[in-house]
Amino acid sequence: MVSLYETPTRRKPLKDPFNHFMFIFSHRICRSSTEFLFRNKYTLRRWSCPLHKCYGITKQQRIVKTRFPLLYCLANTSVDESTKDSGNVKNASQPLPNIASWKRQLKVASYFFLWYAFNIIYNISNKKLLNAYPFPWTVAWVQLAVGVLYVVPLWLFHIRKAPYIQLDDIKRLLPVAAAHTVGHISTVVSLGAVAISFTHVVKALEPFVNVLASAVILRSVFPIPVYLSLLPVVGGVIMASVTELSFTWTGFIAAMLSNFAFTGRNIFSKISMNDQTSYKHMSPANLFAVLTILSTILLLPVAFVWEGPKLYPGWILATSGKTTSMQLITWLLTSGLFFYLYNEVAFYALDSVHPVTHSVGNTMKRVVIIITSLWVFKNPITRANAIGSAIAIGGVLLYSLTKYYYSQKIK
């Protein structure tokens, strides 16, 4: 794109419907700016996106010409001092900071809302499915496969840039994908064996496992207050476990195994993904998509051997009562789609806010899921269990804040 000094020439006037079309279509073409120019008869008119005001503009202003003959963009340009000080554009540039701030706040709020909503839908549909059809290995594989069916068309139709990965890159990603697979299947097994609330309380111990693994494997040591901040997490989980009415060792061990698996995934990622120069278009969302594809391939033979012969009799038994085949299929597809979506939105939320804000949001997410699951499934809960859960989740927030404080102090 080349900057130039433009002087209007005589053209055929544009009709109002076309003006409106260019007004809407320009927002899709040039996402880097909220303002657009196109020529109408002898004047240049500047339009903002539909949520904002329209501003007039002088005929003599420095602009950027695009490949569209009637469409001009103000992105990545600056008006010279004489034009900037002129009365015609003085008022036009003032509202832009407020507009940008308002748009960013709306975007971040939408990420967090979708993150919470998708997570709740996944947990509820997943639990209903496992209550009626208790085959967690198959359910976990279908959920991964649905994610593959979602992301591959995005690449094929060029809605999202597909990553270019070589065989060596896949070899480096295999340990990460294996840990991701173990973490996902362990979580599904735990959600099927115990209440959703208890699974999420146990998964609150993941920072504790992270700290231990970082010290042993990565030789990364934190200040003593960081370790002390994890004591409420451990105490709260112990208190919640001994008072949990739906407690089973299968559910507890599976939830703890998911903590170790996801910690391993993070460590393998740090070890194998330090040099990303060989990756093209490997955004966090694309990285998760590639991991999902690899996990789907890894889990398929294991799930078939473990539960394959039991699937059809189990389906007949599940649909012989109040549950219909359509309900099972709906829960399968819904849990798979929203499992993928909530993980993808979580990446966008993490990239949009401060790490502390993300940690607070992640802590509140568990609170919202626990409260929602108790309301939907009417699970009984004791006072001691509620106190222990609150202490554990509050300890996670304390750990996040303490860790960030000392990381900034070291810098």
TrEMBL record:
Keywords: Membrane, Transmembrane, Transmembrane helix. Residues 106-400 form the Sugar phosphate transporter domain. It is a multi-pass membrane protein. The chain crosses the membrane at residues 108-125, 137-157, 221-240, 246-264, 285-306, 326-342, 387-406. One of its GO terms (cellular component) is membrane. It is found in: Membrane. It comes from the Eukaryota. PANTHER family: SOLUTE CARRIER FAMILY 35. This is Sugar phosphate transporter domain-containing protein. It comes from Galdieria partita. The lineage of its organism: Eukaryota, Rhodophyta, Bangiophyceae, Galdieriales, Galdieriaceae.
